[in-house]
């Protein structure tokens, strides 16, 4: 996301976060977090039994503004939405 909007005379970029909430069957071996807490890498193993197509992408890397690993709803709100909601209530477009 690289959309830029004008707020109170300053330019800001749209921010992107990911919230990861592990479950009992969470794919731990497929997802790795960068040391910077801003990068998430996903690796899918090739399934040789199903005969996956050659050259199919198996790795993705995403650079974000933050990763909220196993974060509560309160932490998500404080980190991601609080400023946007406050600005929206003050008459700005929330960006």
Describe the fold and architecture.
The chain is an alpha+beta fold and 95 residues long. Helices cover 18% and strands 31% of the residues. It has a three-stranded antiparallel β-sheet, with no helix packed on it. Mean pLDDT is 80; it is low at 1-7.
Assembly classification: single chain
Lateral arrangement of strands in the main beta sheet: 4-5-6
Quickly give the structural class: alpha+beta
Proportion in helices: 10-25%
Q: What overall geometry do the principal axes of the alpha carbons give? A: elongated
| Unreliably modeled segments | 1-7
Task: Give me the secondary-structure topology.
Layout: E1 4-7, E2 10-13, E3 17-20, E4 31-33, E5 39-43, E6 59-63, E7 66-69, H1 73-89
Parallel strand pairs: 3-7
Antiparallel strand pairs: 1-2, 4-5, 5-6
Characteristics of this structure?
single chain, 95 residues, alpha+beta, three-stranded antiparallel beta sheet, two-stranded antiparallel sheet, 1 helix, 7 strands, 31% strand, disordered N terminus
Brief rundown of the structure:
By secondary structure, this protein is of the alpha+beta class. It is built from 1 helix and 7 strands, in the order βββββββα.
């Amino acid at each position: 996301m690289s959309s830029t909007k004008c707020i109170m005379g300053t330019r800001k970029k749209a921010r992107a976060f990911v919230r990861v909430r592990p479950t009992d069957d969470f794919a731990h071996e497929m997802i790795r977090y960068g040391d910077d807490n801003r990068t998430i890498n996903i690796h899918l193993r090739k399934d040789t039994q199903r005969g996956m197509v050659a050259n199919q992408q198996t790795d993705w890397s995403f650079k974000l503004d933050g990763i909220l690993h196993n974060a509560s709803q309160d932490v998500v709100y404080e980190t991601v939405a609080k400023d946007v909601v406050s600005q929206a209530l003050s008459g700005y477009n929330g960006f």
